[in-house]
């Protein structure tokens, strides 16, 4: 690969530590407010993460715990709306922070005049305030699950970023943390760098050009410096 044309970041678990103490907390608060007995501990929530999208995750859970498909879908839609409101509150309170090394990597890409974008399955209602609070106006293009309903591992969100930016796929790199994300990026024709987290350390990330334990990993830092 010659010099990078752009870098496209996933959000959950990649740019920010948002799953265990962000989304999971918001889901459990929504359960409690609705008077439901459901509760996701750290391990249970980790097992649900391969199901892309919060509403789909809820519907799958509700069906697995005895609700009918129709009841599960309706309950999931209602709970997910409230969960999103709670997540926005957690973000406003500073409960969701950048992963170590993210700001330094973004600074280096900015210094090299390499555009950075976002491709996420998260909804814009919470993604936008999160990016603004934690990173400011860093990202040129942000595409979310609100605009692209085909969630990862579908490549559609990455293809939409490419369509909007005109970036050549063979010179654009995705940064992901999970198997679904890596599959989506590779299917869109992008090279992918994976920085797993405690939830995704056992995912199949073999499609990535580089697999590391974080965005502060020296191997990842060196990889980007070689391609600036």
TrEMBL record:
Q: Which SUPFAM superfamilies match?
A: HAD-like (SSF56784)
One GO term in the molecular function aspect is: hydrolase activity
InterPro entries with a match to the protein in the record: CbbY-like (IPR044999), HAD-like_sf (IPR036412), HAD-SF_hydro_IA (IPR006439), HAD_sf (IPR023214), PGP-like_dom2 (IPR023198)
* Alphabetized UniProt keyword annotations: Hydrolase
Supply the Gene3D superfamilies for this chain.
Answer: HAD superfamily/HAD-like, Putative phosphatase, domain 2
Q: Which PANTHER family match?
A: CBBY-LIKE PROTEIN (PTHR42896:SF2), XYLULOSE-1,5-BISPHOSPHATE (XUBP) PHOSPHATASE (PTHR42896)
Name of the protein in question: HAD superfamily hydrolase (TIGR01509 family)
